[in-house]
Amino acid sequence: MKTVKTAAEMRGIVREAKRDGKSIALVPTMGYFHEGHLSLIREARKKCDVLIVSIFVNPTQFDPSEDYERYPRDLNRDEVIAERGKVDFIFAPDVSEMYSSGYSTFVEVEGLSKVMCGKNRPAHFRGVTTVVAKLFNLIEPDTAYFGQKDAQQVVIIKKMVSDLNMGVEIHVCPTVREKDGLAMSSRNAYLNEEERKAATVLYRALLKAKDEIIRGDKLLKFIRKEITEMIESEKLARIDYITIVDPENLQEIAGIDKPVLIAIAVWIGKTRLIDNIIVNL
Amino acid sequence: MKTVKTAAEMRGIVREAKRDGKSIALVPTMGYFHEGHLSLIREARKKCDVLIVSIFVNPTQFDPSEDYERYPRDLNRDEVIAERGKVDFIFAPDVSEMYSSGYSTFVEVEGLSKVMCGKNRPAHFRGVTTVVAKLFNLIEPDTAYFGQKDAQQVVIIKKMVSDLNMGVEIHVCPTVREKDGLAMSSRNAYLNEEERKAATVLYRALLKAKDEIIRGDKLLKFIRKEITEMIESEKLARIDYITIVDPENLQEIAGIDKPVLIAIAVWIGKTRLIDNIIVNL
Question: Suppose A230 and one of A124, A205, B131, B178 were both cysteines; which one would form an S-S bond, judging by CB atoms 3.0 to 4.6 Å apart?
Answer without folding.
Answer: A205
